[in-house]
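Task 17 of the worksheet. Students: predict the tertiary structure of the chain below and write it out as structure tokens. Keep your answer in the requested format; marks are given for formatting as well as content.
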Amino acid sequence: MLVYALFVIGFVLLVKGADLLVEGASSFGKKLKIPNLIIGLTVVSFGTSLPELLVNIMSSINGNAEIGIGNVLGSNVANILLILGVSAIIFPLPIKRDTTFIEIPFSLTATLLVGFLANANLFTETKEFYINRIDGLILLFFFVLFLGYVYTISRRKISEPISDEIHEMDNRKSIVFIVIGIFGLFFGGKWVIDGAVVIATHMGMSKSFIGLTIIAIGTSLPELVTSATAAFKKNTDIAVGNVIGSNIFNLLWILGLSASIKPIPFDAISNSDIMMIILSSSALLLAVVIGKKPIISRGEGCLFVMLYIGYLTFLWNRG
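Model answer:
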């Protein structure tokens, strides 16, 4: 019973820990006169992806790679279909030209790259599915390219603040927030993984299924809160950019760093989840391109949520 309680508490610590870490680091950035846009595109994006990172690293170290890979793939599907869907229902999301022609295609390319690297060894003598350390370094290389793009965009739009909600605190309070955030992420990640293993064992479910559903949705809560709040306040650029950026971070930074620490075994059945990310990204592009305006309407948001429910049903039937 204690494991289940810690499992729930772990999710709370993950979300709150990421929030405190972001708030403390953002305050430091503001004190150093770093523009809000750069803070938003770096600190906030990293922060909302920290739960996935901690879950992945701990899963890999503890020999539960199925949970880690399922968490990343499931989070990316949830980001597009669930989070963007809910955000569009709250307020229609206009999509900027850079997002349509650069960021979404980059996210799609990152998905194809992960799929290729995970399946590349199928054509070697070992015929095994895994993402090794060299693959991890390749993913990190493309992540650095993405950061270069973010830096270029930030220099081009340096006068456009991404948020007016960064509160400046004294250095002592910022440090306390950062330290508490790190501890919250560590213990939250550990308790979530331990609980997931117990739940999967007791209920006869695969660890991959738990990672793709419960953990994926749980670790996506920072993105959901950020995007839904932004949509409610009609800050649609944040709502969309947070999701697309998070997907790229998940695939290139989290999987790249995790694989660089320890090679990640990859189950062939996960190829269907990669295909789902590709289909979701393609649906997002179609929603933007088709129609008179580049916008995700409320109707399309409802369709995205329905597609996500259908995906969860497919996962349940798959076991």
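Marker's comment: The chain has a mean pLDDT of 81. Strands lie at 93-94, 130-131, 264-265, 295-296.
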